[in-house]
Design goal:
Elements: E1 8-12, H1 17-28, E2 32-37, H2 40-52, E3 56-61, H3 67-81, E4 86-89, H4 105-132, E5 136-141, H5 154-174, E6 179-186, H6 192-195, H7 201-210, H8 221-232, E7 243-246, H9 262-267
Parallel strand pairs: 1-2, 1-4, 2-3, 4-5, 5-6, 6-7
Helix pairs in contact: 1-2, 1-8, 3-4, 4-5
The structure holds nicotinamide-adenine-dinucleotide.
Amino acid sequence: MGRLSGKVAIITGASSGMGRATSIRFAGEGASIVVADLNQEGGEASVRECKENGGNAVFQKTDVSAEAEIKALVARAVKEFGRVDIMYNNAGIGGAVGPLEEISVEDWDKSQAVLLRGVFLGIKHSVPEMRKVGGGSIISTASVAGLRGFQGLHAYCAAKAGVVNLTRSASLEFAKDKIRINCICPGGINTPILHRNQPGVKEAMEDFLAKGQPYPRAGHPEDIAAMALFLASDDSEFVTGQAMVVDGGLTVGSGFANQRTDTAQQILPPRGFMGPSFEG
Ligand SMILES: NC(=O)c1ccc[n+]([C@@H]2O[C@H](COP(=O)([O-])OP(=O)(O)OC[C@H]3O[C@@H](n4cnc5c(N)ncnc54)[C@H](O)[C@@H]3O)[C@@H](O)[C@H]2O)c1
């Protein structure tokens, strides 16, 4: 008996990266999955892997920024599997990057449409189906970029911060319906959004990301799938409105201690006791 036996999950952005890993993990735990994405070829591959992992799955081509397509996605889940228990709003893009003064209104709006409107629509249209079955779990992928600033990522940071706080406000409204709403804030996770499937870059990214946070390895899509499984399952029944950070310690803090320069050691020696400053 899997942790999601009998449950039906919709996962957007499930043709690749975290969405694909989560689909496969959920399928292995007994869920039926609707794999939703713009990318049909990748989505069909995810469906095959879900089935190989013991679950049932179908692909629905979906643009998460289009309300009619999200409605059709929820309807497909009901038509195929009879209900919706889990909605994972995970699709994403980098969006408008670079200096703020150079961002066009069009690129700003396109970024928000996918990253923030897509989450709003996923919540809006899955809630009615979850009410019919007495509750459910809505998960969205935010980011550590929704908790702090990252240079050159203004549109992305704004949208992901929006996802974090929409999670909170929506969780207040739907708790009475036993619909839990949480988001995940990944740190550096080695997926195609970073390596773009370019030859050799995935391997280089492993090393680069391993140095980006205290825990000494890159983040992997399976790390996010594990958190998504917790949030989707009844194990998290009393958890709602939360932003769950999965980042190998990236956002925990920073320290001079990591900098082995003379100046850094002047400020904070590697060991010992630091008394009043006038004593030198
Ligand atoms: N990889 C990281 O380091 C990282 C860190 C924090 C947050 N995130 C977020 O994680 C989520 C998953 O990204 P990933 O890293 O797995 O990247 P990915 O590129 O592998 O997967 C994202 C998927 O979303 C799909 N998609 C994009 N626009 C869409 C749209 N309009 N409608 C439907 N599908 C669409 C893509 O086709 C792709 O399959 C995204 O929301 C991303 O912003 C990623």
